[in-house]
Amino acid sequence: MDKQVKNKLTLLQLIKEKDKYEVKKGVKEELYIERLDATIVFEKPDRTLALESIEMTRDKDIEAGEADVHLIYNSIVEPNLKDPELQQAFNCAEPTDIISKIFEAGEIPKIAEEILKSAGYGAHIEKVKQVKN
User: How confident is the model over 60-116, as pLDDT tens digits?
Assistant: First the structure.
């Protein structure tokens, strides 16, 4: 869809407001889970984790939904889902089992989607208009 340009990002803006535009690592965000009436905190995934999870969705040998579980397990920092005491309390055979023991089947893809969005995947980007030479 062609649109008229509202604001053109300039070199001067990038330099002048470097902190505003620079991609930051270690950014944490919070999600509210209505059923739990509580929030969880995740760290924005780095490129490697995001691409690894996306690639898992394309692998025919990996069960559907495993990519979401992998992404969530490796992104949530509060509560610490990797805590051995938590794992034991929920009788997890595999560490990632904790995801399906805490979150409903329909919540898992929504959480994963929000985590990926934080890293720019699914961001709204569109063509504006043809550039004339």
Answer: 888 879 999 999 999 999 999 999 999 999 999 999 999 999 999 999 999 999 999
For residues 65 and 109, the answer to whether their CB atoms sit within 8 Å is yes
- CB-facing half-sphere around the CA of 129: CA atoms within 13 A: 8
CA distance 118 to 27: 9
What's at 109, amino acid-wise? Answer: P
pTM to 2 decimal places: 0.81
Classify residue 44 as exposed, middle or buried by CB count within 10 Å of its CB (0-12, 13-18, 19+): buried
Whether the CB-CB separation of 131 and 113 falls below 8 Å is answered with no
Burial class (CB in 10 A: 0-12, 13-18, 19+), 11: exposed
Looking at residue 24, its amino acid is: K
